[in-house]
Amino acid sequence: MQQLCKDRVVVITGAGRGLGREYALEFARHGAKVVVNDLGASADGSSVVAGPAQDVVDEIRAMGGEAIANNADVADWDGAGSMIQSAIDTFGGLDVVVNNAAILRDRMLVNMPVEDWDAVIRVHLRGTFVPMRHASTYWRDESKAGRQRQARVINTSSSAGLFGNIGQTCYGAAKAGIAAMSNIAAEELSRYGVTVNTIYPSGTTRHTEHLLKSGRLSVSTDAVEGFDAFDPANVAPLIVWLGSEQSEGVTGRVFGSRGGRITVAEGWHAGPRIEKAGRWEVAELGERMHELVSRAAPSANLDGVIPGRA
């Protein structure tokens, strides 16, 4: 097997379980040296247990790979800084950061405690910004020193953030923010040889079980027999490819991955419009606004599909 990430140094947050664990194992299979970060938090972030990160490290070492465990809080400035520095000190550099750490505290807007809002925004949005901030400083300094790396950032959004999902106002807001932040970072960091892309993955994890049970996430009916479309391992090949040097030039994109399907999301863009030479009067807008909205595409569903379109 061709090892696309031979000797590349990769930091993955939230890599003790679920999707992150599969990313770490796949990077290791492709020759990467992996920092497995996981605080060991419960699904809602309310409790912490030791062990998940080291368990994945043990799996990687058992297959002959190189890895170290890290238990830092990704949203803590010093903790995230030490996580990035541990990669540099242990393996001699840094090439890839995969921001995957997550918690979930779903509530309807009218019932949501502000503490839940703050916790989710902190882990997802701040917990993506802080590792990326520390890593980008390192890559900027390397570039200025004439040692520009083929660096990669892969951030994690969600269909809830891109397309909306009832009961996930805080989670969706954080994930939408991550997609926007990533696209801007892609522009800012390109001068240092860094690409920044975002994924919205689908897989059976602690955070998606309720969506699968509710049927709000659909499964393709044309999958081969015995293939589990929601196995988290299905997402890992895309992540490893995005972390490899082969992905040079691909940046500022948002990719969906489910089963054997990879999608490029096309994001916000200007649609139909009405226009006049001067300022509109309120009384003029009634029928014109209804007509304008009727010409716009319907909002996409949770799968990112616009109703009525293939």
Give a count of the beta strands, DSSP E runs of length 2 or more.
Answer: 8
Q: Termini distance?
A: 36 Å
What is the CATH architecture annotation of the largest domain? 3-Layer(aba) Sandwich
Query: Main beta sheet: strand number and arrangement?
Result: 8 strands, mixed
Instruction: Give me the CATH fold name of the largest domain.
Output: Rossmann fold
Beta-strand residue percentage: 5-15%
Family: Belongs to the short-chain dehydrogenases/reductases (SDR) family.
Protein name: Short-chain dehydrogenase/reductase SDR
Domain Ketoreductase: 8-208
GO molecular function: oxidoreductase activity
Describe the structure in your own words.
Residues 8-208 form the Ketoreductase domain. Keywords: Oxidoreductase, Plasmid. This is Short-chain dehydrogenase/reductase SDR. GO terms for molecular function: oxidoreductase activity. It comes from Cupriavidus necator (strain ATCC 43291 / DSM 13513 / CCUG 52238 / LMG 8453 / N-1). This protein has 310 residues and is an alpha/beta fold. It folds into 2 domains: 9-265, Rossmann fold (3-Layer(aba) Sandwich), CATH 3.40.50.720; 272-310, no CATH class. It is built from 9 helices and 8 strands. It has helices at residues 18-29, 52-62, 77-91, 114-144, 159-162, 169-189, 209-214, 236-243, 285-295; strands at 9-12, 33-37, 66-70, 96-99, 151-156, 194-201, 254-258, 261-265. An 8-stranded mixed sheet has the order 3-2-1-4-5-6-7-8, sandwiched between helices. Strand 7 (254-258) and strand 8 (261-265) form a beta hairpin. The longest helix has 31 residues, at 114-144.
